[in-house]
Amino acid sequence: MNQFRQDTGTLRPVRRNYYDPSSAPGKGVVWEWENDSGSWTPYDMEVGITIQHAYEKQHPWIDLTSIGFSYIIDFSTMGQINRQTQRQRRIRRRLDLIYPMVTGTMPKAQSWPVNPGTTTSPPAPSCSCPQCVLVMSVKAAVVHGSSGPLQPPGTRKNIAPSGVGKLPPPPGPGTKPLDTSGTMRDPGKTAPSLVIRRQVSNTPAGATAGSPTSPQGSNRKPGRVALATLNRSNLQRLAIAQSRVLIASGVPTVPVKNLNGSSPVNPALAGITGILMSAAGLPVCLTRPPKLVLHPPPVSKSEIKSIPGVSNTSRKTTKKQAKKGKTPEEVLKKYLQKVRHPPEEDCTICMERLTAPSGYKGPQPTVKPDLVGKLSRCGHIYHIYCLVAMYNNGNKDGSLQCPTCKTIYGVKTGTQPPGKMEYHLIPHSLPGHPDCKTIRIIYSIPPGIQGPEHPNPGKSFSARGFPRHCYLPDSEKGRKVLKLLLVAWDRRLIFAIGTSSTTGESDTVIWNEVHHKTEFGSNLTGHGYPDANYLDNVLAELAAQGISEDSTVQEKD
């Protein structure tokens, strides 16, 4: 069950989804929203199922934030409300064909062994290749080892497969029976078993990619039978037996693993190798990539709790300005000591000797270009002329950061645009933290116009991917990180406006050197759990921004 792209070699897993007959697609219910052109656009299948479930429960409204969408659906007005902009759109509920919305009859299922009484054609001679011999021997063992004889298709029509609940009762007279996929079919036809298809698609790693599974009617060797009638345990037995025979006969096996890497090279090599080895009849071991889990299961409002020890559940950006009346020279005077006899070293800002005048060629500060000063805490020495120019090109918030060692003087603030930060507890655990609940943080920043502190004042900026959901374990260290993130938010240090490193888009909201975990149940992109070092790493990143436990005390003061 994989899709292989021939031009790039990308290998992706595929699956056949089954929707419960009681769900929205199972009933043919489609939820749609009205777009700007006045036409109707259907919601994604999972969103429609969530909306329909709340509608059947007779809830007055539903918040879609829990599944990653910043909308509220109001059933009383049949409207969709954007939580950020408060814009409203009309929605509607209509009935359509039952999923998968196809008509016609299903082809007759192929079963094994073939009932001699149902065919007039002579049996084809059996193939003598090692693979077919193994298949036939395993099938024979299955028949002889079962509790009863294998019944022909005609006698098995109304018997539910093993491990599956009873099928729905047959419809009334005059209607065609409905199979488990919701497709109308002819009473005289036999539909392929959904359960057997699932067993084949779920074959574990180690199953041979070169097994004979070509459909009926294709050009293949006579006597080569399909594996669709084997259950999971027998498929495992077949794969192991086949591998042992081929290895014993001197044919090497090539295991193809490591398909979970972020680079497309590994899946490409694995896919190409798998095809080549399958064509040669060799067993190929393919590992199945794990599934990306961005969001937790849906959470009701009653399950969302405030975080003990943390006041409120949200806060907005507050723009802090430098104190008025203080010139750059007055600000820097607090952090500098004058040096009368500078050493024979270079100023790392202008790259001129400290004994010579500053080489800065921009707007002229009011200080003399040959004055030299030493930062009081770290001891690095610069031209005061250069430090004033550097301060004027920054945020002008009353703070200074040493360009050599990054020591921060004063309280550093950033240029994060206005927005909202929400935080609360949800009753689910993160991978690697099974003993505690989860802190969910939701950042919401709308697009707007850049201010004087931004790269292009007066120009509009975009805000992609908001609201952004992030996750922390509700442990002692997790709450500590949250409190420091709140300080960073108040100081406008979480986001900035710049050029996205992933899309290349300029004048957009980007992360600002404080990493967040945006995957809830996986870690495929490196932004999820489990990650044993994440909390320590983010504490170090916050410290580099001048935020530590002392900062929380300063904020209270």
UniProtKB/TrEMBL annotation:
<dbReference type="InterPro" id="IPR018123">
    <property type="entry name" value="WWE-dom_subgr"/>
</dbReference>
<keyword id="KW-0863">Zinc-finger</keyword>
<dbReference type="InterPro" id="IPR039398">
    <property type="entry name" value="Deltex_fam"/>
</dbReference>
<dbReference type="InterPro" id="IPR039399">
    <property type="entry name" value="Deltex_C_sf"/>
</dbReference>
<keyword id="KW-0479">Metal-binding</keyword>
<feature type="region of interest" description="Disordered">
    <location>
        <begin position="296"/>
        <end position="328"/>
    </location>
</feature>
<dbReference type="InterPro" id="IPR039396">
    <property type="entry name" value="Deltex_C"/>
</dbReference>
<dbReference type="InterPro" id="IPR004170">
    <property type="entry name" value="WWE_dom"/>
</dbReference>
<keyword id="KW-0963">Cytoplasm</keyword>
<dbReference type="InterPro" id="IPR001841">
    <property type="entry name" value="Znf_RING"/>
</dbReference>
<dbReference type="Pfam" id="PF00097">
    <property type="entry name" value="zf-C3HC4"/>
</dbReference>
<feature type="domain" description="RING-type">
    <location>
        <begin position="347"/>
        <end position="406"/>
    </location>
</feature>
<keyword id="KW-0914">Notch signaling pathway</keyword>
<comment type="similarity">
    <text>Belongs to the Deltex family.</text>
</comment>
<feature type="region of interest" description="Disordered">
    <location>
        <begin position="145"/>
        <end position="222"/>
    </location>
</feature>
<dbReference type="InterPro" id="IPR018957">
    <property type="entry name" value="Znf_C3HC4_RING-type"/>
</dbReference>
<dbReference type="Pfam" id="PF02825">
    <property type="entry name" value="WWE"/>
</dbReference>
<dbReference type="Pfam" id="PF18102">
    <property type="entry name" value="DTC"/>
</dbReference>
<feature type="compositionally biased region" description="Basic residues">
    <location>
        <begin position="316"/>
        <end position="325"/>
    </location>
</feature>
<protein>
    <recommendedName>
        <fullName>E3 ubiquitin-protein ligase</fullName>
        <ecNumber>2.3.2.27</ecNumber>
    </recommendedName>
</protein>
<keyword id="KW-0862">Zinc</keyword>
<feature type="compositionally biased region" description="Polar residues">
    <location>
        <begin position="199"/>
        <end position="219"/>
    </location>
</feature>
<feature type="domain" description="WWE">
    <location>
        <begin position="17"/>
        <end position="93"/>
    </location>
</feature>
<dbReference type="InterPro" id="IPR037197">
    <property type="entry name" value="WWE_dom_sf"/>
</dbReference>
<dbReference type="InterPro" id="IPR013083">
    <property type="entry name" value="Znf_RING/FYVE/PHD"/>
</dbReference>
<keyword id="KW-0808">Transferase</keyword>
<comment type="pathway">
    <text>Protein modification; protein ubiquitination.</text>
</comment>
<keyword id="KW-0677">Repeat</keyword>
